[in-house]
Amino acid sequence: MSFFGELYLRSTLPFLAPEVTTREVAYLQRCFSGLAPSGPIVDLGCGHGRHAAPLNTSGPLAGRVIGLELDAYSLSHRAPGFPAVRGDLRALPFQPRSLAGAYAWYSTLFAFSDMEHRVILQEIARCLKPGGLLVLQTVPYERLSEQPSAAFQRSLPDGSQLEEESRFDSATGRDHGRRQLTLPDGRVLSGAYAIRYYPLAELVQLLESTGLAPKWVHGGLAGEPLSSASTDLIVGAELRHG
Description:
Number of strands: 11
Oligomer: single chain
Pfam families: Methyltransf_25
Strand order of the largest sheet: 3-2-1-4-5-11-10
Keywords: Methyltransferase, Transferase
InterPro entries: Methyltransf_25, SAM-dependent_MTases_sf
GO molecular function, one term: methyltransferase activity
Protein name: Class I SAM-dependent methyltransferase
């Protein structure tokens, strides 16, 4: 089965504390407040809409946020308050120069091959207006290199049993993992993933090669510089003018 579907949604929702979402939403509001281009801002891989719903309902981005999601299960369980379209990151269903901005959380853009990652960023650049902004969040490559293996088992509030193990290969920059969720009714959901984590210099080169110019790099939601202790790598990149 697909990893980014029912398995992903059921196994991650219990860990998405409301206060974390509130902080992430506030960060995104600050990023896009005062953005020069007018028009919509797209949540790339919006899932059930935990960012898109509050951003579109109130605050400086109200009425401007659109969700994009390929997984039908996630779309069918999305929160109310924002419009969404079903579509593929590798072929965005938007007109050229039609978007003021876009954002992607939890390494959403990098669950494909290196070639496809370039295509995704080219698609984003195609759809952004000049001066449009992309904000992407991922995990620092160095952090995974220091802790390449992970495994855990946990009981979820609904009685489901979650098991996961992963191994980061620093040579390829890919974190390979497998997750299994045993539901209270005995049904078992399982799937594998491989997510690419780029060293910052390599990520900057990738962005620049697709017409996106990095504006800032943050190591967390307070806007602090990236450091060896950072748990986040957040990059803001602007479409070059001309």
